[in-house]
Design goal:
This protein has helices at about 170-175, 255-260, 350-355, and strands at about 25, 30-40, 45-50, 55-60, 60, 65, 70-75, 80-85, 90-100, 100-105, 115-120, 125-130, 140-145, 150-155, 180-185, 195-200, 205-210, 215-220, 230-235, 250, 255, 285, 290-295, 310, 325-330, 335-345, 360-365, 375-380, 380-385, 390, 395-405, 415. Strand 7 (about 70-75) and strand 8 (about 80-85) form a beta hairpin. About 5% of the residues lie in helices and about 40% in strands. The protein has a single domain, classed as TolB, C-terminal domain (Neuraminidase), CATH 2.120.10.30. The protein is mostly beta strands. The two termini are about 25 Å apart. The chain is globular, with a radius of gyration of 20 Å. The protein contains three helices and 32 strands. The longest helix is centred in the middle third of the chain and has 5 residues, at about 170-175.
């Protein structure tokens, strides 16, 4: 059954056409940004077939209970953009490519989280179903290992306002108050999901490093009034390990239920009393812009080999503060963080507020199969409806890529558009 388009974004189209200009994006010397596709609706992920053709995932869901049809679109070598898959269980939250098929994570606002394999003939096989996440912070980030396991994240607690009040008025939370925080896996052929690790709050991005280790980005105490600051993390995910949520900050500070604000949330928490506490994160982001997508550079010709590339989505759209809206690198051996791609200082902040035509809401990153270009998924405009509810805009998303260029002169390239 199709999901009704109640309170949809179609009712409020963008008042103006979004501006795109690669010159507004600052990159290190020897790199340049290119615009690959635009006019996308709620794009959240990208993957590639064996030939390097991009497949873009459109979620079909956005903040403010805005529903559309979730789908995957293919950017052909000619520049044409075609729809290759559609669904009825939004949001679609992540995508991976494996041996000719697409692996899609469905958050499942109404019908529950699922991991689905979509064959080239569009035949679908459900690999895992009934996942206990039915919200906009649900099943996420499929990453396929070389030995045929699909790893994915299950998020924990809803975000809270800065005053510590949980977002109880969100539609999904009223429908389904369950939550969990873990990384799981299932075979690419399907079967019973297995628990890999738990104690995460929001493991949004998953990727395998050059050494084969699994890493995850995690939004932890970011939206809870704990007095500990806003902390996001890059973790190395070890099987059977507990990562601290909700009773311990990974900075090794014990947090009581009352101090964490979780006493205001009307549902139980799963806790682990292991005395050793959580492991040390590979990197700690304090007071930054909410980590989401993740990938690793594995090609010396691109540079930054072995480093993680992470997305900082950014804070409130109503804020002019330049926090996030950027791509950063992390050395997983040292935890050193460095800026890689961000809007030019003249246009610091989201594009819609600062102008210039650069990043609006980068949400995912992925290297092409050869590791020659870093692709950046840009969700697009997020606007306020009234005083309390965020409202997202259709056809304002984009796909960028960053490539090596000795001249590094920013140029606006011909792009594909839906």
């Amino acid at each position: 059954m199709a999901i009704p388009l109640a309170n949809t974004a179609e009712e409020s189209p963008p008042p103006t056409k979004r501006l795109y200009d690669t010159a507004a994006i600052a990159t290190p010397p020897g790199y340049r940004a290119e615009l690959v596709a635009h006019d996308l609706t709620y794009p959240v992920g990208v993957t590639f077939d064996a030939e390097g053709t991009p497949y873009i995932l459109e979620a079909g869901f956005a903040p403010g209970e805005a529903f559309t049809t979730p789908r995957v679109v293919k950017v052909e070598p000619t520049g044409n953009v075609v729809v290759v898959a559609e669904g009825e269980n939004p949001p679609w939250t992540g995508v991976a490519y494996h041996q000719g098929s697409l692996i899609v994570a469905e958050g499942g606002v109404f019908h529950g989280g699922r991991i689905v394999r979509i064959a080239p003939d569009r035949k679908r096989t459900v690999l895992a179903a009934g996942l206990p996440k039915l919200d906009d912070h649900g099943t996420h980030a499929p990453a396929v290992s070389e030995d045929g396991w699909v790893y994915f994240g299950q998020n924990a607690v809803p975000e809270q306002k800065d005053d510590g009040d949980a977002s109880h008025t969100l539609g999904w939370l009223q429908r389904h108050p369950e939550f969990g925080g873990a990384v799981l896996r299932v075979r690419v052929e399907g079967g019973q999901p297995e628990l890999v690790a738990w104690g995460f709050r929001n493991p949004t991005g998953l990727a395998f490093g050059p050494n084969g280790s699994l890493y995850a980005t995690d939004n932890d105490f970011q939206a809870v009034s704990t007095g500990l600051g806003k902390e996001d993390y890059l973790w190395r995910v070890d099987r059977g390990r507990w990562y601290g949520w909700p009773s311990t900050s990974p900075s090794f500070q014990r947090v009581s239920v009352e101090r964490s604000g979780m006493d205001k949330v009307p549902f139980p928490m799963l806790r682990d009393s292991r005395p050793q506490g959580p492991p040390k994160p590979a990197a700690l982001f304090e007071n930054r812009g909410k980590l989401t997508g993740l990938d690793f550079s594995k090609n010396p010709e691109f540079g930054q080999e072995g480093k993680a590339f992470v997305v900082e989505l950014g804070g409130s759209a109503a804020s002019a503060k330049a926090c996030g809206f950027a791509i950063s690198t992390i050395d997983p051996k040292t935890g050193t963080i460095a800026s890689f791609a961000t809007n030019q200082p003249l246009y610091d902040g989201v594009e819609s507020s600062a102008g210039g035509g650069g990043f609006e809401r980068p949400i995912d990153v992925r290297f092409d199969p050869k590791g020659e270009a870093l692709y950046v998924v840009d969700f697009g405009w997020i606007r306020k409806k009234g005083d309390t509810s965020k409202r997202s805009m259709m056809r304002s998303g984009a796909l960028w890529r960053i490539v090596r260029d000795p001249d590094a002169r920013p140029i606006l390239y011909q792009t594909a558009s839906l």
